[in-house]
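Researcher: Sequence recovery benchmark, item below. Answer with residues only.
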């Protein structure tokens, strides 16, 4: 199953760094947060990625084009015009990098990569959030209920819209937050059947608005609730928090050796 990662936005809330590079390329522990997300999926055996690019897309392409240069020790023999890579570790990844437009919205970006996905279900997440979500369990939940889409819901300090969920996990609506609300929000780590494309129109389509709202109205959207670690790198403060976890050797999302 392929993993689609949304990595094309401007990252305006973390503009201290995103003016130089796309937010998914901002580093935690010397590696882009995009790399951390891919390592999470790879840990569970999902190694084929379709990455939706836009803002400063060339930086992401250059990172993967020169992956060994970024990740390994190298010797340059300038006289012979040769480069020798030392201790190179090759990820078992197949990465498709797609220019989905500079200002395309999230739903439009997903629609633009349809021809890379075929007619099979796929996973979808954002390029700025890490988690300990049990991805195989998420996939089993999705396959069991048979609806078009599953999103992973998480409890966090509230900055986002609110999701109303029935006891069986069926999502009934989305709305703006209120003071008395709980804090269950969309944490990404989604699974989609090809039927999602019937809900996506053009580049202006915001996945989190009309498409998910219509799916909820049609009874085709389910919530997989994750109670463990989840964090979105939305601001510089979030980045510093993740960096502190990584430096301490206690980054919860680091499932790999």
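Model:
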């Amino acid at each position: 199953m392929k993993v689609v990662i949304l990595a094309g936005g401007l990252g305006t809330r973390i503009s201290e760094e995103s003016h130089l590079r796309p937010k998914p390329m901002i580093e935690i522990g010397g590696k882009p947060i995009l790399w951390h997300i891919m390592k999470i999926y790879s840990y569970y055996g999902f190694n084929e990625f379709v990455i939706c690019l836009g803002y400063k897309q060339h930086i992401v392409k250059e990172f993967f084009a020169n992956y060994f240069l970024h990740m390994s020790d190298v010797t340059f023999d300038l006289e012979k015009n040769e480069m020798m890579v030392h201790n190179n570790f090759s990820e078992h990844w197949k990465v498709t990098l797609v220019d989905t437009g500079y200002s395309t919205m999230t739903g439009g970006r997903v629609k633009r990569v349809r021809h890379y996905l075929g007619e099979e279900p796929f996973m979808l997440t954002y390029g700025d959030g890490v988690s300990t979500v049990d991805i195989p369990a998420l996939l089993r939940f999705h396959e069991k209920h048979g609806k078009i889409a599953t999103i992973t819901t998480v409890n966090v300090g509230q900055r986002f819209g609110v999701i109303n969920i029935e006891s069986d996990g069926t999502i009934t609506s989305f709305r703006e937050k209120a003071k008395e609300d709980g804090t269950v929000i969309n944490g990404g780590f989604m699974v989609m059947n090809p039927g999602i494309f019937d809900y996506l129109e053009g580049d202006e389509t915001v996945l989190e608005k009309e498409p998910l709202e219509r799916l909820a109205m049609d009874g085709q959207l389910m919530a997989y609730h994750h109670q463990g670690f989840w964090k979105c790198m939305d601001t510089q403060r979030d980045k510093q928090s993740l960096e502190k976890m990584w430096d301490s050797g206690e980054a919860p999302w680091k499932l790999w050796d």
